[in-house]
UniProtKB/TrEMBL annotation:
Keyword Kinase: no
Residues making up the signal peptide according to the UniProt record: 1-25
Taxonomic source organism: Dethiosulfatarculus sandiegensis
Keyword annotations: Signal
Protein name: Tetratricopeptide repeat protein
């Protein structure tokens, strides 16, 4: 009985400590931009001393810049480098963590020059993890910026959008985009045109 009570008290005490720590962190004032720049620079200098292969150390430092120096350019760089680490450094890749990270980037830095690269990487991650419905939502943000008729790269976005729609269950919308790809394709034997033909063949079964 005494052991049980002791365990309960220990759990309660740890909970109080955690809450106190969270409250203290919440009360801590945000660093000024100058302080953020100085801290981010120091962390990047420390990163340069980390031996190759120390993935968790790199992970920690990049997250520290993201959390403590969010208004700096190095924070944006840290998002991208950390996503590289999560996808290409770890085995198996930590794709879900990378998705959460890059989604946070888009919320925090909607006007960043890196938004296009981040969206492209997110699309690949959504498709790699089978989340085609999320992919379609992101394609809807990208597609309006593609000229109509599209160039070769734009056409590849169209057909990838059609595939994502099909895999998300939006078959009629997928059909529409496959047909648009075939109509816009200058070469009927191009990769995009062939994918569109295959897509329509599946939908017509």
């Amino acid at each position: 009985m005494h052991c049980f009570l002791r365990q309960l008290l220990t759990v309660a005490f740890v909970g109080v400590l955690l809450l106190a720590g969270q409250a203290q962190a919440a009360d801590k004032p945000k660093l000024s931009l100058e302080e953020q720049e100085a801290l981010a620079l120091k962390i990047f200098q420390d990163l340069g001393k980390v031996p190759e292969g120390k993935l968790d150390v790199f992970n920690h430092f990049y997250r520290e810049v993201i959390e403590k120096c969010p208004d700096t350019e190095r924070a944006e760089i840290s998002y991208w480098r950390l996503s590289n680490l999560l996808i290409m450094g770890y085995d198996p890749p930590r794709r879900k963590e990378a998705i959460e990270l890059l989604e946070q980037f888009l919320v925090r830095y909607p006007a960043s020059k890196g938004v296009g690269h981040v969206k492209s990487r997110l699309l690949r991650l959504y498709e790699d993890t089978g989340d085609y419905c999320k992919a379609t939502k992101l394609y809807k943000e990208i597609i309006p910026n593609i000229p109509d008729p599209p160039d070769r790269k734009g056409l590849s976005y169209w057909v990838l959008y059609a595939e994502a729609l099909e895999k998300c269950g939006q078959k009629e919308e997928a059909r529409k985009w496959y047909e648009k790809v075939l109509k816009a394709a200058k070469d009927p034997e191009s990769m995009s045109a062939m994918i569109a033909k295959d897509g329509l063949s599946r939908l017509n079964k």
